[in-house]
User: What shape does this take?
Amino acid sequence: MEMVNVEHLTKLFPLRKRLFSREKHYVYAVDDVSFKIEKGKIMGLVGESGCGKTTTAKLLVRLLDPTSGNIYIKNENIADLRGKELKKFRKNIQMIFQDPYESLNPRFIVHDTVAEPLIAQGLYNTEKIYNALEVVGLKPPEEFLFRYSHELSGGQRQRVAIARALVIDPIFVVADEPTSMLDVSIRADVLNLLLALRKKFDLTVLFVTHDLAVARYMCDSIAVMYLGKIVERGNAEEIIKNPKHPYTKALLSAVPIPNPKAKRKRIKIGERVSDAVNPPERCRFYERCNYKKDICKRKYPKLIECCKDHFVACHLYG
Ligand SMILES: Nc1ncnc2c1ncn2[C@@H]1O[C@H](COP(=O)(O)OP(=O)(O)OP(=O)(O)O)[C@@H](O)[C@H]1O
Ligand SMILES: [Mg+2]
Assistant: This one.
């Protein structure tokens, strides 16, 4: 069953008008993005800094209003929900942020942080708070309930953030680079915790990361984003073993491989280009692509199904 179905999602950020300039400029942070996530599955959203991952994540939990497009969560389109209806729906979707130092209120003790979403929905219940702390491995809960976030380690803070996200039984969780601010030594623990929780609660997850190796470990499917567009998506193993888009290939060539005998040449692509401000009608990857053809300069490539459940937006493929 499909839990999440995103159609033509778009977010433009207006740039401040320059004096004497009549034109309006927009950053095309998310540009006509579509994907689906099956119930109980994890989709990875991968790409370099500035490609629109966080903007997509925030649109899906409606911390940002989309410019256009549809976001179906369990068949309800939440793209245009406002006010009371939106508040009611928030119970179903939760976000785990990149930086647990910033996302937790320093004046709150753990109890208050985890209780907050329950109180907002009028569902406060002590037992739920205890349970949430236990499932994220903060045991015994009494030992953590009255601590402030500065009294916790980075890993413990992120566990509190996860407990807070799960305490109201969401059906869909968005995790935005949840381990990138943590010490390397504890990243695997938090990733494994997320995998265990997904299994236990049959959660549907959008997992944002710039790291394809992490995406491979965590995700059932992967979508690769480049300057606001999805350039390739499909089953995770398929994308890793059989990448099609020149950008995905370059990203993968930079991922260390476990077998040192298997040599792989690192593919060089140019430096990241600037943000997608009023982008011209052509492939966004044009400037950096080693395989560009004439048509790439004139037309944006459509996302087409190149193999079963594997989609690519590149003029090299049809
Ligand atoms: N509030 C905003 N106002 C204007 N532009 C914004 C805003 N938020 C994001 N952008 C722009 O939108 C684009 C996408 O940003 P976003 O934060 O979604 O990227 P990201 O993939 O999450 O990057 P990172 O890996 O660095 O977290 C960037 O060009 C960014 O400058
Ligand atoms: Mg981001």
Remarks:
- Residues 184-201 form the longest helix (18 residues).
- The chain has one domain: 2-92+170-312.
